Structures are given as structure tokens and as C-alpha cells.
Amino acid sequence: MNSSLLYMMINVVLVTPEIPHNTGAAGRLCLATGARLHLVKPLGFSLDDKQVRRVGLDYWKDVDLKVWNSWEAFDAGTFGAKKYYCTTKTTKPHWEVNFCDGDYLVFGCETKGLPEQLLEKNKEHLLTIPMLKNSTRSLNLSTSVGIVLYESIRQVGLVSQA
Question: Is residue 114 helix, strand or coil?
Fold first, then answer.
């Protein structure tokens, strides 16, 4: 791949992540793709946690990271932006959306996913990663981030680095 190319900006949002390894891996995916990582508190770990740094290796300091104190603060701070909510509780595949520069890909915590009231309020923007029936409940959070992030990047395309 030509290193003089950059992806348009996509935003990855982790709502109350619980496992430092997954957040570190998501941060590394964001860094590799030029995406911004948003973390919505409460977090199930400290960002100083050595596991986050270990998964992000020495790159963690370079991740474009924004930490929000609550969902309400995030929602108010990104008012008007297009947000897609990734969940196992819908049937619309993630590839059926036309992603655009600046979109937000929202993922819930590892054990509970996104809050039911958030899903109910945003039914028209729910996406899923299709899986075989009865194969597994869900995919690993960082794996899910990678799948949806790279599909959004594939659609949005590349721009030349200035």
C-alpha cells in the first residue's frame, strides 16, 4: 500500500469498555486507519493500565483519542453527526449502509453491548455483523471494530496526504 495515502476521518466510539486489551487493540486499529477513538466513561480500567499500553505498544500515545465523561456529554458534543450503532440486536448488515467522512461507529461494552434505550431510540441506525445462526452470541469487541471500520474505509475511500 502506498504510504502517501490517508483514509478520510471515521470515528470509533466505545461506550463503557471494560477490557483494556480490547480498547488497546481498537486504538491500534484507529491509529492504523487515521480514525479517531472516542471512549465514553465509565471505563472498566485506567487508561494508564499497562495492558492498554501493551496492546497499543508504543503507539498508544499517538492514538487520536477523545475521552467523554458520559454518554450525554458525547451525544451533546457530537450533535448532528451521523452515528451508527453496532449490535447483535438487529438484522441490517453493516455493509448495507453508505458510510461518509465523519461518521461515528458506536460499539457497546463487552458484556452488555449498547443500552436498550439507546438502541430503541436509534432503530434506523442499527447495524450488525452477520454471523451463522447458533454459532456464537457475538464477536470480540476489537474484532467487530476492525470489521466495521474497514468496511467504512472501503466505502469512504482514500485521499492523498498533503
Answer: coil
Mean pLDDT by 10-residue block, N- to C-terminus, for the chain (162 residues)? 55 95 90 94 83 66 94 96 96 94 96 95 96 83 96 76 43
| Residue 42 DSSP label | P
Three-class secondary structure of residue 69 per DSSP: coil
Only one residue has cell 451508527, namely: 84
Three-class SS of 2-39? CCCEEECCCEEEEECCCCHHHHHHHHHHHHHHCCEEEE
For residue 7, what is its C-alpha cell?
Answer: 483514509
pLDDT of residue 53: 64
> In the predicted model, what is the mean pLDDT of the chain?
87
Q: What is the DSSP letter of 126?
A: E
The angle formed by the CA atoms of residues 105, 58 and 106, to the nearest 5 degrees, is: 10
Q: What are phi and psi of 17, to 5 degrees?
A: -60, 145
